Amino acid sequence: MQKDELYKVSILQCLARQCSAFNDIAKQHTPDEWSAEAEYLDRAMQLASGSEHYRPLQQIENCPMLPIFETVGGNGKGEWKIPAGELRLSSDSFATKQEFQPNHQPALEKLLCETENLDKAKPTHKTYAETLLTLLYKYTSQIPSGIEGLSDVSLYDYIKTTAAIAVSLSRSDNDSHPFLLLGADFSGIQSYIYTIVPKRAAKSLKGRSFYLRLLSDSIVRYLLKELGLYSANVVYNSGGCFYLLAPNSKEATGIIANAARRIEKALFKELGTSLYVALDYVELSCNALLGIDGEDLPTQWKALFLKRDKKKNHKFSSLLKGNYSSFFDTSLQNEVYKKDSITGEEFLPREKVVVIEDGDSHLTLRPITALQIVLGAELRDTDTIIVTEKKLNTKITNVTPLGLGFTYYFVNMSNEFLGIYNELAALNDKATIIRLNETGDYSKKNIYKIEFYGGNEVGITTNTYEDMSEGDSLNRLGVLRMDVDNLGTIFQSGIPGDKASLSRYAALSRSFDYFFSGYLNTIWKNYEPAQSQIIYSGGDDLFIVGRWDTAINLAEKIRNDFKLYTCYNDRFSLSGGVAIVPPKFPIIAAAEESADEESNAKEHVCHGCEKDSISFMLTPLNWDKEFKTVKRLKDDILKALQNKLPSSFIQKILIHHSNADIENHKIKNIQTYWMIAYDMKRMSDRIGKKADKSIIKLINNFKNEACRSNCTKLNGEAIETEYHPLELWAFAARWAELEERTSIKKHNNNG
């Protein structure tokens, strides 16, 4: 049996075993010699379940699917259940505690119909298998696996993992450790993305960020092609790292070694030392996949993390030995143009210079920078990416990252696809059509994929950074960075050893990517999308630039939805930082400031609760214990200002805070107490009976709370915090002042 046919039949047979409606289709595609290969599928289904004693269930149509997030930490009570339905970027797809009777039949019927239509097109074995896998993703990612004790893994994740294991088993020549878990991680991503000066920053950042995604994708495709593997073998690919399951054979290890050298060489040729990808692998036994005889997957994940991180300490070591001059000989640098006008990067030896007009002057760019600007502009109208192993005869914008043999075309299906349809159809499985953030029509002659990409919504126009913040003298952008706390620990030890199956790791990884690459678009486009731009979102982190208040509000919405998405499991939290800067502030400096703010949030401890915080204006606040209460105080101050609270109230708070000499959340300047009491008494007397009672109450609350060192209330509301009340009143006052000026700006702009 051909390799591609084995892959296709493994998917179909596993699907048929879990859902009898697909028996006839599976039989049609299963050749007579399958019986000799069936043992691989039998073993693979067991290994994918992670249990020696796995047992398929008879009926999956009405079984509820449980969220993988309850499994992490081992404290899940089975209270949450995922609604039935096909893939969609909506909170309606989130797990819920509400009682319901799941009905998976409609989704399975649609899958059956699409599979029958795929049959009629008579595609190649590989096109059929890869497209079927995408259809499984579309229709069965919210249907349970049908394996006893594995209801937190979707049918899609289980079949995908089973196919990867079956293919690897069939090609392994190592009986004791038949698998390789291959992992890679890019280093230098942060500094590479943010090395952008303000000019053309929006397009440059977007294109530069997306180019990194293409780099990772092209490397994964290259490795799969060299190893003769498939998309099912990709355990995870997002956020600048990826993991593959491969057969353990002498041929495979040799291919990986040669591929690593070529990738390293290609990266250096195209990007110099800006980026490096650390790639390594560990051997896996069947016992490790089953968690028996003292072996388990968490231990192997840790080992791979360590091996991969060690590689980062020897960057480009293989190139240094034979190409020393390429790294250190300055005589090879371009003597006319020293640096790229936008990125500030030095030109590589003998690198072509691209000159573009910019008003009365001109910019000198590296070819890669010019391309990334084009990508940033093209992405606004792109709903489909086509990847081919052969160049097309078209003028559609395209890029071939690292020269690894894969060209990416950026297409809008409504007006560009028909012109290349016939040429694509002739390529068969040498072309992949990727729909971004949607599940629309596809060519059944080529491989069909669905991918999510943060911040790309055709039809939504995002303002320039200057327009986002244009108005009065405030003019401030918010640069937001967020990521999941302790993600490495979650992957290494979050899933209990007795449940640590490869299919669960695949399900957990996919679930993170769904939220950060996919669902984040839903949050963004429903909240002033013209006033913010998602520069990057994927894996477990994000980077957003927008108007300063939009950035803070988006951060809160993202965090709240993430908690709901992860079933309020305490093992999952999200910390972030917002740098508030002028619109022409250098992006690299703003990124560093937001990174510092994010670090403040990560280091914040509130009554024993670590991380799970947001930080801006150099003040980290725990999301639940502090942020909500401080935000309500800010709102109360704003409301009071609108009701004739003297604006001097804010200035008084800020002056007293400045003079208090606070150290370790304690006031050292004792005079502060009686000065606050004196000023607030005078203010109350001055506005007298004319003032709204709520204003007098606000003033008195500030006086009473700021003059106590152990106050557990903020504006009369209970709060758990280690800050002195004066610190939080001052923070809320500054926040309110900024927001009031922004409100004035909005009003003036709206005329």
How would you characterize this protein structure?
With 751 residues, this protein is α+β, with helices and mostly antiparallel strands. 47% of the residues lie in helices and 15% in strands. The chain is built from 26 helices and 23 strands. The strands form seven sheets. It has a six-stranded mixed β-sheet. Strand 16 and strand 17 (609-610) form a beta hairpin. Helix 5 packs antiparallel against helix 6 (125-140). 47% of the residues are buried.
Total E-strand runs: 23
Strand content: 15-25%
Average pLDDT, to the nearest integer? 89
* Coarse shape: globular
Compute the CA-based radius of gyration.
28 Å
Helix content: 40-55%
How many individual helices? 26
Distance between the termini: 72 Å
Helix-strand category: alpha+beta
Question: What is shown here, in short?
Answer:
This protein is an alpha+beta fold and 751 residues long.
Chart the SSEs and their pairings.
Elements: H1 3-18, H2 23-29, H3 38-49, H4 68-71, H5 105-121, H6 125-140, H7 155-171, E1 179-187, H8 189-194, H9 201-227, E2 234-238, E3 241-247, H10 250-271, E4 276-284, H11 286-290, H12 297-311, H13 317-322, H14 324-328, E5 354-358, E6 361-365, H15 367-378, E7 384-388, E8 398-399, E9 407-411, H16 421-427, E10 431-436, E11 447-451, H17 465-469, E12 477-484, H18 487-494, H19 502-525, E13 532-538, E14 541-547, H20 548-565, E15 574-581, H21 587-603, E16 605-606, E17 609-610, E18 613-616, E19 619-622, H22 623-642, H23 648-659, E20 662-663, E21 666-667, H24 671-687, H25 693-706, E22 713-714, E23 717-718, H26 725-750
Parallel strand pairs: 10-11, 15-18
Antiparallel strand pairs: 1-3, 1-4, 2-3, 5-6, 7-9, 7-10, 8-9, 12-14, 12-15, 13-14, 16-17, 18-19, 20-21, 22-23
Helix pairs in contact: 1-2, 1-6, 1-7, 3-7, 5-6, 6-7, 7-19, 9-10, 9-15, 19-20, 22-26, 23-24, 23-26, 24-25
